[in-house]
């Protein structure tokens, strides 16, 4: 949304705005590193740029709970350690409770009889 708003004010060629948007969107995916997500994310063509932005955000004082260090460590590990790190990341995050959808309203039985 930030990029979209800025494009209205400033002419940013698409060859620049598209990568900027992708890097920005990856910032929201970096905290979700459970299971195979981390492996898929590290293979993304813009991962390194998104990682660099994450480190910049951390070094500027934004509190990210060690996310930059986790990704720094993850990149240099072998596949077995990476798998273990992803499982541990899953344990560290609180489980989200999903709301159950309510079924259709129950029909009232009439006792007109």
Would you mind describing this structure in some detail?
The protein is mostly helical. It has a single domain, classed as cca-adding enzyme, domain 2 (Orthogonal Bundle). Helices cover 58% and strands 0% of the residues. The longest helix has 16 residues, at 14-29. The mean pLDDT is 86.
Keywords for this entry:
mainly alpha; 113 residues; single chain; flat; 58% helix; 6 helices; cca-adding enzyme, domain 2
Can you tell me the CATH superfamily?
Answer: cca-adding enzyme, domain 2
CATH class: Mainly Alpha
CA radius of gyration? 22 Å
Order of helices and strands: HHHHHH
List the helices and strands and how they pair.
Layout: H1 2-9, H2 14-29, H3 37-42, H4 47-59, H5 67-75, H6 79-92
Quick synopsis:
This protein is an all-alpha fold and 113 residues long. The protein has one domain: cca-adding enzyme, domain 2. It contains six helices and no strands.
């Amino acid at each position: 949304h930030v990029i979209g708003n800025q494009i209205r004010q400033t002419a940013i060629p698409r060859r620049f705005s598209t990568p900027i948007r992708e890097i920005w969107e990856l910032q929201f995916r970096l905290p979700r590193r459970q299971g195979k997500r981390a492996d898929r994310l590290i293979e993304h063509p813009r991962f390194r740029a998104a990682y660099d932005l994450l480190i910049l955000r951390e070094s500027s004082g934004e509190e990210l709970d060690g996310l930059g260090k986790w990704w720094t460590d993850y990149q240099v590990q072998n596949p077995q350690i990476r798998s273990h790190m992803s499982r541990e990341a899953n344990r560290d995050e609180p489980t989200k409770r999903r709301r159950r959808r309510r079924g259709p309203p129950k029909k009232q039985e009439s006792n007109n009889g």
